[in-house]
Amino acid sequence: MSIKKPIFSQTITPQKLLTLIVWLIVAWIFSRPLIGIGQNIYKSLGSFTSHTVQGIYESKSSAEDLLKAKTLVQKQENKISLLEIKLNYLKNQIDELDKLKKLLGLKKNLSYRATSATVIGRTPDSWHKQIIIDKGIKNRIMLGDAIVSDKGVIGQIVDIDKSNSIVQLISDPSYKLGCKIKKKNIIGILSGKTNSVGILEFIPIGTDVQVGDVVITSGIGSQSLPATYPPGHPIGKISKLSKKNNKASDLYIEVKLFEDLNSLSDVLVFSPN
Predict the structure, then answer these.
(1) What pLDDT score was predicted for residue 47?
(2) Taking Cα atoms as reference points, which of 150, 154, 152, 164 lies closest to residue 97?
(3) What is the dihedral of CA 21, 27, 33, 39, to 10 degrees?
(4) Those residues with Cβ within 8 angstroms of residue 123's Cβ, 6 or more apart along the chain or in another chain
């Protein structure tokens, strides 16, 4: 019985074994830089992935911060808007208090019976000539009573019922108001032109009047009746002066009214005692 050689020794000859060893050495030599390259690639991929993930988290954090900042700014803007509304309300309240103080001052300084009133409307067919106030007969208001404000003359009551009264404004061209130029005692008649300008009539050419002169109520009554308006109450000031007029002997004089008849609110009704 013969003994068989191992398969390894049968198939691999010394020449083949030598060739195999050579190839293993070559493979080992070439594999070292490849391992380095692989490691570098792995490191690069890891670093890139890490930076990318970090960038995503940072971008997300920045977006969240921007959103929070925007929400905070919006809240602050809302607070500022509310504060502005409150501030405007307080300013209006202060203005109203100032008006009331001035009106009360007028009551104390004049010998007329005075009643505070509020403008509640205008008549549609005479929008620029009449107003309606919230006082009437039950408040002892009478026809012919004068209407003034702390700034100037407004008009005169021409119609009345139990609770309300209609006031003819001095801006009505048909209305005539006795007045004088302050400090010069020059008497004239004021008639309406617009809600901000009146015409001062019957002032002869050559009279010592100038642009800027203040016009006030004359305080002159008729016969035994007292004057409709308290004396010396402001009306306006001369804004235009010209010799061109239909009446060659009179000056053409425009008076800028002190009171804005387009935006009336609180007024006083003056009744002679």
Answers:
(1) 61
(2) 150
(3) -110
(4) 130, 132, 166
* Of 128 and 90, the one with more pLDDT: 128
Tell me the pLDDT of the chain averaged across its residues: 77
Q: Is pTM, for the whole model, over 0.85?
A: no
**How far apart, in Å, do the first and last CA atoms of the chain sit?**
163
**Residues sharing a CB contact under 8 Å with residue 192, sequence separation 6 or more, in sequence order:** 129, 169, 170, 171, 172, 173, 174, 175, 198, 199
Domains of the chain are 113-271 (2.40.10.340)
Going by C-beta distance under 8 Å and a sequence separation of 6 or more, which residues neighbour residue 180? 186, 187, 188, 215, 216, 217, 218
Which of 256, 255, 246 shows the shortest CA–CA distance to 205? Answer: 246
Tell me which residue has tokens 């100037």: 152
Please give the DSSP secondary-structure letter assigned to residue 248. T
Cα–Cα dist 218/233, whole Å: 8
- Rounded Cα distance between 270 and 150, Å, is 12
